[in-house]
Structures are given as C-alpha cells and as structure tokens.
Amino acid sequence: MFGRRSLLRExxxxxxxxxxxxxxxxMVESEYHLLTFTLVAVxxxxxxxxxxxxGYSGLVSFGHASFFGLGAYxxxxxxxxxxxxxxxxxxxxxxxxxxxGLMIGVPTFRLRGHYFALAMLAYPLALLYVFEWLGYQExxxxxxxxxxxxxxxxxxxxxxVGIAVALMTAAMILSRxxxxxxxxxxxxAIKQNxxxxxxxxxxxxxxKLIAIVLSGAVAGTIGGFYSxxxxxxxxxxxxxxxxxxxxxxxxxxxxxxTMWGPVIGAMVLIPLSETLHAELxxxxxxxxxxxxxxxxxxxIILAPEGIYWKIRDKLRAGRDDDRRPVDASSAAPAExxxxxxxxxxxxxxxxxxxxxxxxxFGGLKAVQDVSxxxxxxxxxxxxxxxxxxKTTLFNLLNGFVxxxxxxxxxxxxxxxxxxxxxxxxxxxxxxFQVVRPFLRMSVLDNVIVGAFVSAATDDQARENALAxxxxxxxxxxxxxxxxxxxxxxxxxxxxxxxLAGQPKLLLLDxxxxxxxxxxxxxxxxxxxxxxxxxxxxxxxxHTMQAMVRLADTFLVLDHGQVIGLGDPKTITREPxxxxxxxxxxxxxxx
Amino acid sequence: MGTVAIVTENILQAMAAGLLIGCIYxxxxxxxGVIFGVMRVINFAQGDFMxxxxxxxxxxxxxFGILAIMGPYAGPIAGALxxxxxxxxxxxxLHKYLVTRVTGIRVAGxxxxxxxxxxxxxxxxxxxxxxxxxxxxxxEPVSIRTPLSRTAWELGPLMGDAVSIFVxxxxxxxxxxxxxxxxxxxLFITKVRFGKALRAAADNPQSATYVGIDVEKAHRVAFGxxxxxxxxxxxxxASYYPFQPYVGIEFVIVMYAGVVLGGMGSIIGAFWGGLxxxxxxxxxxxxxxxxxxxxxxxxxxxxxVFIRPEGFFGRSAERT
Lengths: 590, 320
Description:
The complex is a heterodimer of chains A (590) and B (320).
Chain A lengths: L6 H20 L4 H27 L7 H18 L3 H23 L4 H21 L5 E2 L17 H22 L2 H11 L1 H6 L4 H27 L1 E2 L1 H5 L1 H14 L5 H21 L6 H16 L4 H13 L8 H4 L18 E12 L2 E12 L3 E5 L6 H9 L6 E6 L2 E2 L5 H7 L1 E3 L12 H9 L6 H15 L14 H14 L4 E5 L7 H16 L3 E6 L2 H7 L2 E6 L2 E6 L1 H4 L3 H8 L1 H6 L1
Parallel strand pairs in A: 5-10, 5-11, 8-9, 9-10
Antiparallel strand pairs in A: 1-2, 3-4, 3-6, 6-7, 11-12
Chain B lengths: L2 H37 L6 H18 L2 H32 L7 H4 L5 H24 L9 H4 L1 E4 L9 E4 H23 L1 H11 L1 H6 L4 H23 L10 H15 L4 H21 L5 H15 L13
Antiparallel strand pairs in B: 1-2
Helix pairs in contact in B: 1-7, 1-10, 1-11, 1-12, 2-3, 2-5, 2-10, 2-11, 3-10, 7-8, 7-10, 8-10, 11-12, 11-13, 12-13
C-alpha cells in the first residue's frame, strides 16, 4: 500500500537477505560454485532491470539485451582500448545504458502492442550485427594481474560475489523505492489502464521514459560488470536473444511487478541451468536454453504472474474474507448533511465554453458544430439517444480525441488540443462510461492516483484521497481491492478518483448506467454532495428520469447536433427532443 | 569492361538475386501472415519452425538417397514439400495443447493484456525448439548440397557483350515453387469454403461463431497451415543456404519485416512484403558490407513500423 513508508525500514529485509546470501557464499570454496553465486546475482539484477520497465509499467520488452550488451562492451572496450579501470568503466556502462534507454524510449513508446514488442526485439539484433561489423566479434579483457584490485581481477572469487551482491542490493532498493513512491504508483496505474491514468493527470510519456532510463541504467551496469566476470565479450553472448529472454524469464518465473520476483527466479533457474550445463553441457549442448524455454512455458500456463504472486495469493486466500460488499450509505454513517445547493444565477461566471465544436471520423460527423456555456456551480446535463455523440463530445473536451474544428475554453483559457493529463492538471476531472478501475489496487490507491495531480506531497495526496472517498460515501471500503467491488461501488470509486484531483469541473460519463433504482439514488446523492462543494458538473446520460431531477440545464444531442438547450422541464416537452428519443409517433401525440 | 558496365551488372545481379530470394521470403512471410491474419498472434517461434522445416527437408533428401532417385531438381523440392505436412502436424499439436491456452476468441479481439502471454509462450517455444535443435542436430552448419546449389544460368550478354546476370539454379527453382504455393494459398483462402471460414474467423471471431464457424478449429488449422508454409519455405532456403539450429532468429526479423511491410494481417501483402525485403537485403550489399545486410532489414523494418505501421500492401478491407 502506498504512503507512510520509510525506505530505510523497507530496505532492512533486502540488506538482511544480501547479508545471508553473502555469508553463505563466503563459506563456499569452489571457484565454480562461486561463479554460480555471482551469476545468480547478475541475472537477478538483470531481471530487476527488466522488471523496472516491464513489470511496473506493463510494457513488455523483448530487447533488454540492448542495454546489457552496450554496458558490457563499454566496460570491456574502455579497459582494452584506453586502460580505463572497470571501477570507472562500469559506471560508464550505466550512463550508456541510461542514454540508450532514452534514445530507444522516445521513438518506441509511440508504438503500441505488437509493434512495440517487435521494435524492441529488433534493437539488440541490429546492434549484434553492427558490433560484428565493427570487428568486435570477440573482445577479450586483457589480464592485469599486477594491479588486480584496480582492474577488478581478483583471485579470490568471493570478491566478485560481493560486488555482484552489492549491485543486486542496490537494484532491489531502487526497485523498492519505486514500488512505494508516487512514480511507482503512477506506473502501476499506467499498466492497469493507460487511458484512465492519462485522464487522472498522469503524464504517461514522462513516466515511461523515466522507467526505461532507470531500467537501461541498471541493465547497462550489470552488463558492464558481466564482461569483467567472464573476461570475454561476444555479440551473441550479450546482444543475443537468449540475453533478452533470460532477463524476462527471471522476472516472469519469480513474479512480475515485485522486486522479489527476479531474485527468486534467478535463485531457482540459474543454479539449475548452470548445473545442467556443467553436468550435461558436453553431451547435451543446448540444455540451458531448453530449461529456460520450458520454464517460461510452464509459468505462463500455470502461474502467469510468477511464483511470488501465486504463493502470495494462496496465503491470502485463507484469510481474505473482506469481500463482503459495503453498503455505501451505511458505511458512511457520518454522511455529510447536504447543504441546500444554490443553483447558479444568470450572472454566474462561465467555467466551460464550447464554440462550434466538430469532429469527423472519416465521413461520419460524430459531433457537429456544438456550442454551449456552463456556468460555475452548475449541474449541466448532456442527454441524447445512443450514438448521439455524447461520449465523443467528452473525449473532445478532455483531449482524448483531437478536434476537427471549433474550440473549447476553460475559465477563459483555450484548452483545445491539450493532452488529457494536461487538461486534468488545469482542474478538469472525468469518469468513464465503461468503468476503468485499477483492479488489483486498493480503493485508496486507486483514488490516490487521482490525487497526485493536485497534491504537492504524498501525504497531501493521501489526505485528499481519503476525503474524496468519504465524500462519495465509500468510507468503509478504502482498503478493499478494487476487483472485489460491486458495480455501484466501482462507480463511486471512480467518482472519488476524479474528485481527489480537486477539480473545479467534473465530466461524468454515464455514471448511472446499468444501476438499479436504489443504487441510482446513492449516486445522485453523491453527485449532489460534490456539487454542493462548489464543483461544476457536466454529466452525460441517456436515461431521462434521473437526470430531470439532477440537472439544472439540459443540452440535447442527436446525430452529433444540438437539438435543444435549456431548463429540463421545458426541454423534455419539446417535440424535437421527444422525436429523437421516442420516434415521430410519440412526438405527434405530445 | 567499363565502370558503367560493372555497376550495371552488379545492380542487375543484386536485383535478380533479390527477386529470387524475395519470392522465397515472400512465401515464409505468407506463412506468418496466415497466423497473424487469422489469430492476431505474434509467433516468435516462427523462425524456429522454419529451422525445423530446413532439417526435415535436409534429412529427407540426404538420408533416403532421394537425391539420387529424384535428381537435383525434384529431390530438394520433394524435401521442402515433405516439410509441409510434418510441420502442419506439429503446429496443430502445439496449438491444441499450448497455444490455445493463451489465445482464442477471448483475446483475438483485444489488444490489451492477453497478447503478452502469447508472446511469452511463443518465445518459450522458440527457445525449446532452437536449443532442442542444437541437441538433436548439432551445431555444425549444413545445407542440401546439389549440383544446382553451385551452378547458374547465364542471362546475357545483355549490353553489348559485357553485362550478364547469373541466376543461381537452386534459388530459381525455390522461387518458382514459392510462387506456386503462394498462389495455391491465395486460391484456398479466397475460393475454398474452409478458407473463407478462416477469413470470417479472422474478421470477427464472435460473429463467426454465431454463423456456425468453429473458430477454435479455424485457428488450429491456420496455425498449422502457417507453420507448414513457412516450413516449406525453410526447406527451399535449405537448398542454397547453410544453416544451423539458431538460424531461426535471423529469419524471424525477415518475416516480421515482411509482414509489417505488407500490412499486418494481409496474406498477399505479406508475400509482397517478403519480396521487398529480399530485394532490400540483396540491394543493400551494393553499398553496405555483407555483415550489415540484416541491419539493413532492421532499419527498413523500424522505418516501416514508425512511419507507416499499417503497411504498404494490405488493404484494410482484405484483412486476410
């Protein structure tokens, strides 16, 4: 859970683990076994690097060998060509890895899904051929026995284990820091639902770039160290498919999205494959790859999120009886009494002003020449039959979709064409027609993600989130996992998430859809409470009944055009509106 | 011979080689295209299935004295064609017991969570196949050596008496077979009833189910078919290119470059994409060192992905 955690305390188990690991290693004499200890830590670190990007943000990288290989070549070539000590060469690898992360991230994050995966796959393979062409088919690190410590060439192999463990510990602490930080929670939100994260004010591109730079830096570091352990670097051994795959396999096997995952994975798989390789390598040369391949096939079929989560879910299952739904009204006994809401008068300032807004999708005119003003403090209802263009209109307002023509201004400033997270930062929150929760996160964490946009500190974010949860009436459910909520509770939580960013204007997209009549009442009450705090509300609905009681003003859309604007009671009697909803026959009767 | 003549000859030679190799690449891309087009699954193991096709052809041709019986033309062709059914069966079995657990109607429609499981599963299959291949076949590069591999027809002289093009016989035969098989595949997809069902399953798995198409079966056949076609292409490559068990990864990128270039999901587009990649690869040797051939393909691939991810040859209407 987020917040109220000190990194120092969180680091204790990590340091303890490293100490035990080191203690066990120091009792080992055999050079060969010490190499295994080193390699476990190396691949655990590489898995951690992969996990920082792919585990936390959900963008699966099949090309982490790029960073690893660049780091390996950096330290090896620095020593071989310029006599630079690995103590500097490895940090140089860190920098190279980070820069490579940035250079790969900027273009590649524009791609999605399949294309992202394929592009990431292509980078290390292209680098492989480039390094072969450059004449670095085999770079041997020169032996410098006379100044061993300076050149990191120790006869006591326990020192290698020590350095590897130090690097692994650093990577684990970095991972843990990410997990408990605002940045980590933002990545998690992106992983679970990018659109919702964007609308909650999270700068998607910036967060992803930070992740890939950190990830590249860690992979470059460990690659730089790896070449000093093996003393020889070849393009296939560092840029090859198996290197990328190994990073992914460690994390996937052990557990994705947790810093323990890659460590568990490496501790199981590396000794296994090293032993098999040593015992059978001469007879069965490809045994290592077969083991890794089988490991991920089994994991993806039996425990798709890795061993760590499988065990954790098993342990949790026993004592997880908090799935009972909390009734919103009873869970918030101290329900704030509703102060009588004052409807905005004719001279109230205009918050949102839409002028001649249009959007075409090819030949389809989804929104045509729509103009309206929303005064401060209003509850402004947008109604219309299915397919009238209501959601498209919202997507234009908050920047999910670019406008074809026309403008949107918020508090007098033009916001046409801004990205959703920028619109959100200005104080415009929104919810979605299809609920977009972060299902594996607690209600509180879900809402905290929404609070980041306006909160200066993490504690502030937490406070704002708790206040928002209280206001919508989910007070008793803050610690529950979003996946266990009912439909109504999810909608309330979405409301809270949008509210936690302290918006001045809230866009609600069919918040009442699919709810029973008593549930509708709970939501209406929550919306009225929000409005009474001075938040202006624009709400889309196609069910008239509830809306007539909620909204001050109706805008009626049909086929993307405005066919009515005004007081709900009057509007619902207009023949054009009745026709749009019920067809000609009813219009004639009315 | 003047400089102009030499340059012309080099260009024509590279184009000829590119077209021939391109046809074979086109066939392997069409195989991947079937799988991607119908199932929307990225199959990382496709290159390793191709490697298996190469070895099937190799062992078939070399171990039964086939070459002596059938001669240098029919022998390698028979070897390549045998790879087809073998790989088809393997593909169907793998789909039935593994791939289907992470694919199907559930994920065909959505771009989100589901497809990473597929990517990772096929990566696992790829590792097992390529390293298992190392165990079974050894790391020594082999190829189907026939008199055709080393001989060529001379076209020309074309300009005066100077410029002539040499057409490698093994590649030429491979290209002809590729065109025929790709043509047959096209007819199957567009004219045969089951082929049409495949397209329907690709276009909208849900609706296909409603009109009585067994989408699961369609996917299984598509997977087997795609693997088989790429396997045949592998068998053809084996007659002119030395290979070892790790050869798959070299061709995975060739295939994906071709499929992306052709417009993901279009089988015919994939063939044209593969042809283009073959040309790019061979033409790049005119200006780049041989080691960078594949890098040229990567660059083309990345450019396509960034500039025109919908590809150049596919029409969105003809999704299969």
